[in-house]
Amino acid sequence: MDIRKVKKLIELLEESDVDEIEIHEGEESVRISRHSSVTPTQTIVHVPGSNLGQTAGGKPGAGFVETAAGSPEAEAGSLIKSPMVGIFYLSPSPEDHPFVEVGQSVKKGDVLCIIEAMKIMNQIESDVSGIVQRILVENGEPVEYGQLMFVIRET
Amino acid sequence: MRTVFQILRILSDGKFHSGGSLGNKLGVTRTAIWKVIRKLTDYGLDIHAVRGKGYRLSVPVELLDQDQIENKISKHARRLIKQFEIFGVINSTNQYLLEKSDTGNIHGHVVLAEYQTKGRGRRGNKWISPVGSGINLSFGWHFDNFPESVGVLSLVIGVAIIRALHRAGINGVGLKWPNDILWEHCKLGGILLEMRGETSGPFDVVIGIGINIHFPGMEIAGIDQPWTHIAGITRTPPSRNGLAADLITESLLILEQFSYEGVAEILDEWRRYDCIHGRQAMLILPGRNIRGKVIGIDDRGALLMSVRGERKRFNAGEIRLRVTS
Question: What's B124's DSSP letter?
């Protein structure tokens, strides 16, 4: 689940009289309640198949857990999202092999793709080590801010 | 690698030097000299080997000299340099700084190289420049936050290159959106901006500049587009070290101007050197091409084209001019 969505939910809760909301999306669920007396809201994100729990306030755009956008099945793995609007390139040049392919193992810091934005070529690095499970953008396609690009199963 | 540059330094005068005399000077065998000559040929140099006379460069080269360059960089620009390195052979000066940016501060870090084994241009195109024959310059620059106007950065650097060429006495060079330096539709140089990581908050960009100065011949393996070099456009080419210093000076000064004064004046200057304005062209985007007439750039550095009578703006792509008779 997108961290910004969680943030929106918290804001919604704060603006309302509701004490607690719980949302299910596929196999994921999130419960936000204002029961704690210390902090006004408390967030629990639960993702099956992973013991990664995350509270709101994480850094967007990098390696947190959520359901693949537009895909019905939930996926456990690190999600690499586009930090900007631009054009997605999977290889260093049109003639070269792609930086990564599905099934390939990557190390933290390896370049996954290039996004060209405002005439600057941005090398996007993996922030985890693992196996590339899915590549969700085609070479040469435009990407939006926050758009899911890669799913990497951490090893 | 040291021997390679020792020999290149001796050969740089453009005179004949025999394998024996080179060997004696450096205390190596003639076979070792021959291997070095082959290496220099791999690095793009044209070397005449004449029996009984020895080896000679077809075109003399001026090797980079850190003291000469530092002395010629303007005082004000020198204050903006935090670190200055010159390499003989490197994979890519941009790549070197990109990797540095992962762990350290690259702001004001200036890098030059005699030769790049993996020089590159936009979209991974190869950037080919024989050893000692051009400028391979990169430097890092830090921005406290991602300015909306960052899309103009490559145009800003283009203007800096024009200013540096003027300083070196070279006029008549034009700019082609987004990052080409042209002389009569032949490529004289280019700009490559790269970065790593996110575009929110502070970020470091690596600014790469390549200029062809004096190539050994008009047949350079691997270059697949019309190109030229400074030696081909002026009878009195400036010194390579001098031009490197001018490029560093003007780039650093324009980045300061960009930060303090904004971009409006710089873009007006860019427009004066726009050499594709009014031309029929094709904009090549991944998966589609757009035909139209180039009508200039907007105040954020985007390309403006008239496409079937409609004014459109583009932030990416590559322009190919249509040859009209």
Answer: G
